[in-house]
Amino acid sequence: MINDDDDEISEGLNQIFEIINAKGDVGELQEIVDNAEINKKHNQKFDEGK
Q: Which of 6, 15, 26, 34 has the most crowded Cβ, counting Cβ within 10 A?
């Protein structure tokens, strides 16, 4: 459980750094959002399987 929380926190922090580094690049920002949505859907399916 704790490891899952750590992974979520780490993923969130990585997304923040990616957004900062994108510096307004619309394409890169859209890619970050799209990847976050894909990861969220994947995590929901994984959680349902537990």
A: 15
